[in-house]
Amino acid sequence: MNNDNKYSSHNHHQVHHAGHDHSGHSGHSGHSGHSGHDHHHHGSFKELFLKSLPLGIIIMLLSPIHGFKLPFQFTFPYYDIVVAILSTILIIYGGRPFYQGSVDEFKQKKPGMMALVSLGISVSYLYSIYAVIITYVTGEHVMDFFFEFASLLLIMLLGHWIEMKAIGEAGDAQAELAKLVPKDAHVVLEDDSIETRPVADLKVGDLIRVQAGENVPADGIIERGESRLNEALLTGESKAVKKGPGDEVIGGSTNGEGVLYIKVNETGDQSFISQVQTLISQAQSQPSRAENIAQKVAGWLFYIAVIVALIAFVVWMVIEDVPAAVIFTITTLVIACPHALGLAIPLVTARSTSLGASRGLLVKDRQALEIAQDADVMILDKTGTLTTGEFKVLDVKLLNDKYTKEEIIALLAGIEGGSSHPIAQSIISFAEQQNIRPASFDSIDVISGAGVEGKAGGHRYQLISQKAYGRNLDMDIPKGATLSILVENDDAIGAVALGDELKPTSKELIKALKKNNIQPIMATGDNEKAAQGAAVDLGIEYRSNQSPQDKYELVKTLKDEGKKVIMVGDGVNDAPSLALADVGIAIGAGTQVALDSADVILTQSDPGDIESFIELAHKTTRKMKQNLFWGAGYNFIAIPLAAGILAPIGITLSPALGAILMSVSTVIVAINAMLLSLDPKK
């Protein structure tokens, strides 16, 4: 079955599903990792950081750090009032996103990172303003924390900028897809003149002209013209596909040498590319189990930090004085910011989603990656999944010395010349590939239930099934192949073996599954002979004559045995089992059912991509664990240190150092996520 047609026929319905039912999710991708801090609504952190930087530098140059005056610092009369005014401007401008974020968090009753940052900057700012007032009221100098306040705010803004940049660079698969569709289309008007119109303004029924070398602007049907189209985006076939009037074309495919006139049949949300983008945004906006753990840990950290900070404040007030207590309190709040933690999972999944997309994997449900690495069994459909799903000539045998092999192929192609049957078409295209001209037949007739017969050059030929021929031929034929015999005046002169060929990557996939201790089982609706042929070739267990119900029962039985099951199918008759399996993988994306039932879609219909999926599952889960360790682990060491637990032996952390340490962990997590990669395709 040709993949492109399969896609297009379901396009309209499936997009309706993808484009509307889930539209609510797509906007929440920011939420998942950031406890409600929405990137767009808080403005650009790059701009905030760059505009806050000069203010922050002036404050740090004028303020002593933690009571020490550094060589680069200078003072003048009333400098502290200038610093207080600049700090007020800085907290209002640079602190805004943190306060907005913490309001969101408290509204959701999930205080986390933003609440902690807001607490840290508020405490240091308010205490410093109080210190300036007391200094002027009593004449006694009270130490302020303007240096710590400014450095913390700048580092937090910088951290967010790095984070946003990293999330952006984690790969925007949607933007990549959008690039495939041109901005403008050449619309043919009634008087045959051409009007250039933005693609967004195209309507169903418009006639558009696509010149050689241009990308097709919308899904449609060719009215006039012939060309070869590169549909690698859609089918994974690097070879250009020949198309002419009546054939469907997909927006984003590249036109080869001819000029095409195409009638638009899908636009905007209904188009193939738009629907793939919707899928990607759904995949990226679903929180996974690991992400939920990260959210919980961030919440715990907020409460732990506040409690430890309060204990530190009380203890240090008793042991020393208020300024010392404030220093330890602020440091505790600063260092506990679960910034790296909020970043740990979203960065890995964003990177993982885009890596998958580059390999033709659309991961609709991110949990599929976490589940797949523990899988025990993979059930694979045969036709169209492990095999090409198309009849091909596997072998031509010569059974009579009077003829050459070329002559037999010419006769086979000639006698099948008038038939549109898939078997006939595969024989004709086999002759074309060998550059053999079909023999010219004077007449061709169908023999009901047996084959065809015809006359050529005064001879009578028949191409009939082995059963109709009735005699046994002693010859080797490929496993699972169907044999047709070419007969001349009742003598067998040649035979053609036809079959459904294994896809080139199927054997590699089976090897990879066995290496990962995943047991492959082939479940097919095909007969015993065809099923056995493919299964023996692949060296795997199989079940033949399977109805959709049988496949469903097989998945159910294995699950009842406590096994984790991955089901791979083409999404139509396999829908029930795709939905029931722990992870459903649909080959040949595009059927409505594939979209609804599967967790993962292989856009290129290549079983080798399942190998990439298993590898991606293992590597993604490993990176998530590493990042959770970095994001949370360091906090549990740093918080007690910040609270001054080791102060009696002279080890303390200043708020500025706390902020630097926190940012370093964020950068480590970001770099670690970016290092997620897949082995090159063999």
UniProtKB/TrEMBL annotation:
<feature type="domain" description="P-type ATPase A">
    <location>
        <begin position="180"/>
        <end position="280"/>
    </location>
</feature>
<keyword id="KW-0813">Transport</keyword>
<dbReference type="GO" id="GO:0005524">
    <property type="term" value="F:ATP binding"/>
</dbReference>
<keyword id="KW-1278">Translocase</keyword>
<feature type="transmembrane region" description="Helical">
    <location>
        <begin position="116"/>
        <end position="139"/>
    </location>
</feature>
<dbReference type="GO" id="GO:0005886">
    <property type="term" value="C:plasma membrane"/>
</dbReference>
<dbReference type="InterPro" id="IPR059000">
    <property type="entry name" value="ATPase_P-type_domA"/>
</dbReference>
<keyword id="KW-0186">Copper</keyword>
<feature type="transmembrane region" description="Helical">
    <location>
        <begin position="78"/>
        <end position="95"/>
    </location>
</feature>
<feature type="transmembrane region" description="Helical">
    <location>
        <begin position="297"/>
        <end position="319"/>
    </location>
</feature>
<feature type="transmembrane region" description="Helical">
    <location>
        <begin position="325"/>
        <end position="349"/>
    </location>
</feature>
<keyword id="KW-0547">Nucleotide-binding</keyword>
<feature type="transmembrane region" description="Helical">
    <location>
        <begin position="145"/>
        <end position="162"/>
    </location>
</feature>
<dbReference type="GO" id="GO:0016887">
    <property type="term" value="F:ATP hydrolysis activity"/>
</dbReference>
<keyword id="KW-1003">Cell membrane</keyword>
<dbReference type="InterPro" id="IPR001757">
    <property type="entry name" value="P_typ_ATPase"/>
</dbReference>
<keyword id="KW-0812">Transmembrane</keyword>
<feature type="transmembrane region" description="Helical">
    <location>
        <begin position="657"/>
        <end position="678"/>
    </location>
</feature>
<dbReference type="Pfam" id="PF00122">
    <property type="entry name" value="E1-E2_ATPase"/>
</dbReference>
<dbReference type="GO" id="GO:0043682">
    <property type="term" value="F:P-type divalent copper transporter activity"/>
</dbReference>
<dbReference type="InterPro" id="IPR023298">
    <property type="entry name" value="ATPase_P-typ_TM_dom_sf"/>
</dbReference>
<dbReference type="GO" id="GO:0012505">
    <property type="term" value="C:endomembrane system"/>
</dbReference>
<keyword id="KW-0406">Ion transport</keyword>
<keyword id="KW-0479">Metal-binding</keyword>
<keyword id="KW-0187">Copper transport</keyword>
<dbReference type="GO" id="GO:0140581">
    <property type="term" value="F:P-type monovalent copper transporter activity"/>
</dbReference>
<dbReference type="Pfam" id="PF00702">
    <property type="entry name" value="Hydrolase"/>
</dbReference>
<dbReference type="InterPro" id="IPR036412">
    <property type="entry name" value="HAD-like_sf"/>
</dbReference>
<feature type="transmembrane region" description="Helical">
    <location>
        <begin position="628"/>
        <end position="651"/>
    </location>
</feature>
<dbReference type="InterPro" id="IPR023299">
    <property type="entry name" value="ATPase_P-typ_cyto_dom_N"/>
</dbReference>
<protein>
    <recommendedName>
        <fullName>P-type Cu(+) transporter</fullName>
        <ecNumber>7.2.2.8</ecNumber>
    </recommendedName>
</protein>
<dbReference type="InterPro" id="IPR023214">
    <property type="entry name" value="HAD_sf"/>
</dbReference>
<dbReference type="InterPro" id="IPR027256">
    <property type="entry name" value="P-typ_ATPase_IB"/>
</dbReference>
<dbReference type="InterPro" id="IPR008250">
    <property type="entry name" value="ATPase_P-typ_transduc_dom_A_sf"/>
</dbReference>
<dbReference type="GO" id="GO:0055070">
    <property type="term" value="P:copper ion homeostasis"/>
</dbReference>
<feature type="region of interest" description="Disordered">
    <location>
        <begin position="1"/>
        <end position="40"/>
    </location>
</feature>
<keyword id="KW-1133">Transmembrane helix</keyword>
<comment type="similarity">
    <text>Belongs to the cation transport ATPase (P-type) (TC 3.A.3) family. Type IB subfamily.</text>
</comment>
<dbReference type="InterPro" id="IPR018303">
    <property type="entry name" value="ATPase_P-typ_P_site"/>
</dbReference>
<keyword id="KW-0067">ATP-binding</keyword>
<dbReference type="GO" id="GO:0005507">
    <property type="term" value="F:copper ion binding"/>
</dbReference>
<feature type="transmembrane region" description="Helical">
    <location>
        <begin position="48"/>
        <end position="66"/>
    </location>
</feature>
